[in-house]
Amino acid sequence: MQAVVWAGESKVEVRDLPVPEPPPQWTLVDVAYAGLCGTDLHICHNEHPRAKPGLVIGHELVGRLTSPLGELRAGAPVFINPLLWCGICPSCRLGRYHICHRLGLIGIDMNGGAAEAVAVPEDHILALPAGVDMRRAALVEPLSVAVRAVRRSGMRLGDRVHVLGAGPMGLLVASCARLGGASEVTISEVSPGRARAAQALGLSLVDHDSPQPIADVLFDCTGHPAVSPTVSRWVLPGGLVTVIGAYPGVVPVNLQDVMFREISIVGTRVYSLEDIAAAISVVEREGPTLDPVVTAVVPLTEGPWAISALQAGSELKVLLKGPAA
Ligand SMILES: [Zn+2]
Ligand SMILES: [Zn+2]
Question: Which ligand is nearest to the CA of 142?
């Protein structure tokens, strides 16, 4: 089968690999779509601490079962939960698998699904509604992150929301904030291409250089060290800051402002099963409104092109199309 492989350094190759043979309690899924994101860029530029060369990338996956599983028949559309948790650390013991102390991911810590097929543990399979648009369902993984971010933020009906960063995550968070009842959603973005995508989603842009208290709730989807000192300045007194973007390390935050104006800061990481279930229903009901987030759908053989296009910023979200599409 064809698979997109990180070959070490900055080399990405399409390789012909044997179809994986699932061990007991695992199952084989024919891939419909594999979405690529910033994490894949980090892997493919040797910037990810855990990925090893020879890895098949791809953690944003939907496909079809190759054999029956429980009540699901062969061919049933499924989402693959890529989170790998240990089951025994204090977080896992409390049922908080998504903040497992040793959290890993399919497509980082084991071969992923930027391939014709992928073998995964059976308990990572989640059924998608029959007849779901698989191309739209390919957004379930990043959308689950956005759902959790909005839930974690404490946002209330009628709140004014501002989003920093109009990458795929910022756009999905802005969409979920709208669905969650925000009265107004604005966004800031440096790149003109991404700003255009935000406009295509009907979001109004606010100049990123002039932070001003315009929001009850801020979502920081940048992870950029230049942004962290400004986050408190976007929110009104008593406002909420939600950190979604992964910062590269310790970064400055204006804690004087946080204290004087009673600002709350909350972090959010990946998603729980409940968040995934909500993301699936968002795709079912609101799928077409999210279409501007996906800017290219290409065959697996275009995997290396997709990585370089994302790196260059000429595409926002690229889906690789597998045989079950
Ligand atoms: Zn991703
Ligand atoms: Zn654990």
Answer: 1
pLDDT band at 167 (very low <50, low <70, confident <90, very high): very high
Q: What is the pLDDT of residues 287-319, one digit of tens each?
A: 999 999 999 999 999 999 999 999 999 999 999
Which residues are found with C-beta within 5 Å of the ion, ligand 2?
85-86, 89, 92, 100
Exposure string over 281-316, b if 16+ CB within 10 A, otherwise e: ebbeeebeebebbbbbbbebebbbebbebbeeeebb
Is 275 within 8 Å of 148 (Cβ atoms)?
A: yes
Q: How far is the CA of 36 from the centre of ligand 1 (A)?
A: 6
Candidate CATH numbers 1.10.12.10, 3.40.50.1110, 3.20.20.140, 3.40.50.720; the one for domain 147-267: 3.40.50.720
The alpha carbon of residue 128 and the mean position of all alpha carbons in its chain are separated, in whole angstroms, by 18
